Structure formats: structure tokens, C-alpha cells
């Protein structure tokens, strides 16, 4: 039979785990649960935004298909996703040049460009550069790199 103290210890351990997963700094049970609820709402909003981006990309199939770009701010850097349902030769170079122009260091990246183009990059700001980079600035620079790439491919 499990004692009351053991149950309390298990509950405390689970609350601490929930607290760490949701990046909560709360100390009491109610605040930890409220923070977890807010965290879940934020995740739902992110999923909805990504689904909207995908829907927009799918409905604009009559126009020349430009890759979808999303940038998410993380605790120590940014997560940049670029997706296109077709192969995009030369696009990776354009995007990496945009990162370099921003002073953004690519710390880790996964790229696939066989039948479609997928880039998932984790970038951090260059420590030597004093300026803070905003996620919107990064998204704008990547979108501009995609547009420049698209224009240079349509001209040739």
C-alpha cells in the first residue's frame, strides 16, 4: 500500500517535471498548472499558424510556388524552416548568404532538396555583433532571399 507521503512525493515530482517542461518559474501547484495551460495554448496557436501557412501555400498553387518560411524565437537563438513542394536548385546558397549578411551563425541544420526543398536551421546571433536580431527581421531576410532566387531563376 502506498503511503500518503509517497503519493505527495510523486505528485511533487510530477509537478516539478511539468514546471520544467513548460519553462514555468512558479512555485505553487496552481501557478504551475496555470503556466502549463498557457504553454499549451501557445503551442496550439503555433500549430494553427503553421497549418494556415501550409493552407496558404497549397491554395496559391496557380501562382509560381514560393517556399514557405517560418521563424521561431527560441531561448538561445532561432529555428528557421523553409519548405517548398518542389526542388529549388541554388536556393540554399541564397538563404545562407542572407544568414551571413545578418550575422546569424548556423549552429545546426538539416536540408533535403531531392524532390522537395526543406531546410530546418537552428541559428544563433553572432556574439561579436552587439545588435539583437528580431525573428521578423530574419523572416524578412529569408523571404527576400527566396524572392531574389525566384526572380533570378525566372529570368534565366
Structure, explained:
- The protein is α+β, with helices and mostly antiparallel strands.
- The chain folds into two domains: 1-63; 66-155, Alpha-Beta Plaits (2-Layer Sandwich), CATH 3.30.70.
- The chain has helices at residues 4-21, 29-59, 91-102, 135-155, and strands at residues 68-74, 77-84, 104-112, 117-125.
- The chain has a four-stranded antiparallel sheet with strand order 1-2-4-3, sandwiched between helices.
- Helix 1 runs parallel beside helix 2 (29-59).
- The longest helix is centred in the N-terminal third of the chain and has 31 residues, at 29-59.
- The N and C termini lie far apart (76 Å).
Fold topology:
Elements: H1 4-21, H2 29-59, E1 68-74, E2 77-84, H3 91-102, E3 104-112, E4 117-125, H4 135-155
Antiparallel strand pairs: 1-2, 2-4, 3-4
Helix content: 40-55%
**What series of H and E elements makes up the topology?**
HHEEHEEH
Tell me the total number of β-strands.
Answer: 4
Strand content: 15-25%
Overall tally of structural domains = 2
Classified in CATH, the superfamily of the largest domain is: ACT domain
How would you sum up the global shape? elongated
Structural class: alpha+beta
Going by CATH, the architecture of the largest domain would be 2-Layer Sandwich
In a few lines, what is going on in this structure?
With 156 residues, the chain is α+β, with helices and mostly antiparallel strands.
Relevant terms:
53% helix, 4 helices, Alpha-Beta Plaits, alpha+beta, 156 residues, 4 strands
Amino acid at each position: 500500500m502506498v503511503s500518503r507521503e509517497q503519493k505527495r512525493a510523486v505528485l511533487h515530482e510530477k509537478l516539478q517535471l511539468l514546471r520544467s517542461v513548460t519553462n514555468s518559474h512558479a512555485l505553487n501547484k496552481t501557478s504551475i498548472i496555470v503556466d502549463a495551460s498557457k504553454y499549451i495554448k501557445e503551442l496550439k496557436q503555433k500549430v494553427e499558424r503553421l497549418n494556415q501557412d501550409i493552407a496558404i501555400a497549397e491554395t496559391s498553387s496557380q501562382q509560381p510556388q514560393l517556399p514557405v518560411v517560418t521563424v521561431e524565437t527560441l531561448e538561445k537563438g532561432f529555428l528557421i524552416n523553409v519548405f517548398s513542394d518542389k526542388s529549388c536548385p541554388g536556393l540554399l546558397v541564397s538563404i545562407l548568404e542572407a544568414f551571413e549578411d545578418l550575422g546569424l551563425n548556423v549552429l545546426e541544420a538539416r536540408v533535403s532538396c531531392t524532390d522537395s526543398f526543406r531546410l530546418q536551421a537552428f541559428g544563433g546571433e553572432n556574439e561579436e555583433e552587439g545588435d539583437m536580431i528580431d525573428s521578423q527581421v530574419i523572416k524578412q531576410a529569408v523571404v527576400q532571399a527566396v524572392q531574389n532566387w525566384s526572380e533570378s531563376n525566372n529570368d534565366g
